[in-house]
Structures are given as structure tokens and as C-alpha cells.
Amino acid sequence: MTVRRTVATAHRVLRQLRHDPRTVALILAVPAVLMGLLAWILHGRAGDFNQFGPPLLGIFPLIVMFLVTSVATLRERTSGTLERLLTTPLSKADFVMGYALAFGLTAVIQGLVVSGLSFSLYGLHVSGSPWLVVVVAVADALLGTALGLSLSALASTEFQAVQFMPAFILPQLLLCGIIVPRSQLPPALHWLSDVLPMSYAVDATRQLSTSATVTSEFLLDIGVVAMFVVAALLLGAATLRRRTQ
Amino acid sequence: MEPAIRVEHLQVIRGGRTVVGDVSFTVPSGSLVGLLGPSGCGKTTLMRSLVGTQIVAGGSVELFGQPAGSPALRSQVGYVTQEPSVYSDLTVSENLRYFATVLAVPPTAAGRVIGEVGLGRHTDTVVGRLSGGEQARVSLATALLGSPRLLVLDEPTVGVDPLLRRDLWILFAALASSGTTLIVSSHVMEEAERCQRLLLMRDGQILADDSPEALLASTGSTDFESAFIALIESPPT
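ok -> C-alpha cells follow
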């Protein structure tokens, strides 16, 4: 892996985004509009908004970045550019880290926009630091990117890739504790939710909602999310094949 | 001198079907070799085996004495696939500058190769807006960036107008005379006369491995189309 090739790959991915301003607008606007919608739905029920707002503030970017990355990497696979890159000195890590870097930067901007609007215009309130909410939102978006990179290897068409969202993300949404607290789930489902990354992302924001200081549980939760990001990126690199049938 | 390509008993099986069956040949450095044969005869699979992206069932492929696909070869081999494998949502120069960094060549190389493939007017055009033939040339330009020792070109002249096709063959000949080895595939038999050596392929087998002149003489033909037919109907024993 070389820094120069990784940065060049990130730069190239960002340039591709710049040629597609509508996608950039959607990445930045969709989570922000959805949070606004949630605030409106829960109008006059500030307690509910403060309960459901923070976890969804991370989950919306996760879903958006998962879809964008899945399709972007699938396009590299089907257009032959990935095969070409893998005949050059570019390493698999350069490729995966280039994407993570480019979409990570996008996620920072996205996280700042959606959090900024939520805490000002939508009136969201948490006990902890709003900046830590931004950190969790960015970590969630990175998780979406990393999962998209690794899972896109299982898809051979864009039709399949977009269906991985309902197949892999929606079950996590059901099990992450937003609908029913994880402790009240049937034992088998509780264990299942223990191995799913979104559960920890939601737990982290719950810590921020209720506690004014940085708790050790928060650090553990955000650490687990970071580990899932690293594991998914490693898996993503492992799915790249220089030789194929 | 060490040959640029040495293929011995190469066999590729895909989906239970033998796509390349027991193929052996060598290509000396600095030669311009045409790989000719009908669509579906195994040309692309053979080329993918050369660059090391194809899973092979048996035999060996060596480039400059090293097994195909080994890391040391990655900066020495340029490969152009049949479909243009460049980013259609980037401009010509953005594509080339990215690949220049990947190949660790100076960004000035981008300007040089744009000139070589005659795309000077389209430097800042988004690749997706170019015609099919122009996109193929962007893909070719990308392979020329690193001044590789071996160029593997899969049907680089498809959909290119006759004038430009002539210019590309002049470029290929110039590259060969400066020491680059080129293997160029085509399903158009007339392109055979542009090559120094021909590999004629059919149903995963090499039917002939000879110079264009010798091939015409041995089959008693005046054009390559009839030479090919003669080889199929009465294979040399």
C-alpha cells in the first residue's frame, strides 16, 4: 500500500462525484430532510424526538452511504476498471482505503449538515456533546461505506446490489433497539442483535442522549463500531480478486 | 535473448468447456504479433491468461521469464480490454492523470499519450460523451502511459475509421521498432498484413504461427481470409 496511490484513488472517486452534482446533493440532503420530517412527525413531543432523533441521525447516513458505495464499487467491477487497476501496481488496500477516504470525507460533510440542522433548526437536544453525535454519525456513514464495499462482491448486477439494502440493513434496523429495547427481545434475537454493528451505533447515541459525560460504555460502543468498519474494509479488500474465471 | 512471451501447454476451462486447449508458443521481444480468429475462438481468454487475470487449468505462461501476473510484471505490461475500461464519468485527462499516479509515471505522460492516440481535441471532454471508438482510444492511451515492455491489446481497432486505424497500426509498428512487444487481437483478417507475425486461432487452438508472407505462401492464397479457410479445411499435418 502506498499513500500516493491511496490518495490518488480517493481524489479520483471525489472527482467522479463532482461530475455528478445531483448525487452529491442527494447524499447531503436526504438524511437532513428525513431528520426534518422526523422532527415534524414528532412535533410537540420533544421527548420522543430526543429519543428517536440521535440514533436515526446516524442510521440515515449509514443507509445512504451503503447504497452509494455498493453501486460505485459494483460499477468498478462490471466496467472492467477494477480488473485493469488490479493488473497495475495498485494494491487492494490502496483501492479499498481510497474509497474509505473519499466517502469518509463525504460522510464528515454529510454528518455536519444533518447534525447542524438537527441541533439548530429541528431543536434536537442531547445531554452529551453534540460534537460526539457528529462523530457517531460519521462513524455510521463509514460503516455504511465499509459494508457496501464488502457486500458488493456478492452482487453481480445493480438490481442485486440495491436489494442488499433491505436484505442486510433493514433487519439490523428492526433489531437495533429502536422499536423494542434490545434487552426485551426474545433471547435468540438478543444474541443476534449482539453481533450486528448497528446495535452498537444505536447504543452509542443512546449514551449521548442520557449522559452528560463521556461514559466508558460510549467508548466501548464506538470502539465496536470502529472495529466493524475495519473488519468490513479488510473483508472488502479480501473479496478483490486479481484472477477470475 | 529471453522471449517476451513463453506459453507452454496452456489450458483454460470455463464452465466445463475447454476455451483454450493445450496452446504453446513463444514471442520474441520487440515483435508485433497479430492474434487473429473469429469471435468466440478464445482470443480474449488467451490474452487474459497472458496478463494474469485468468484462472488457468494447466500449463504455464511466462513474460520476460516471470510467471504471468507476478507483482514485478505489473508495471511492465499494459493491457487493453475489448470494452473500454476507463471511467466514463471523468474527463480524458482526469482518467489519464489518475492512472499515471497509479503507475508512478510523471503527469506529463498524460499529454504524450493523448497525442499518440489522436485525442488532443478531447482532453477535457467527459469520456462518456465520446464515441465508442474514441473511448477505446482513451483506454489504449491509459495502457501506453507507463511505456510498458509488453502491450496486450484486445481488438483496439474495432469501430475506428480507416484513417485512424492506419495511424494506430503505424503507432504499433513504431512502438515495436523501439523495442516494445505487442500482441494485438482482431477478427478482421485484413489486419494480418500489418503484423510481423500471426497467430491464427480457432476453437481454442492455434492453427498457425507464422509470418504473414509465409502463411500466404504455404496455403497458396492471395489474401488472409482464404488462407484461414485453407488452414481450416486442410490443416497442416
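The two ends of chain B are 30 Å apart (CA to CA).
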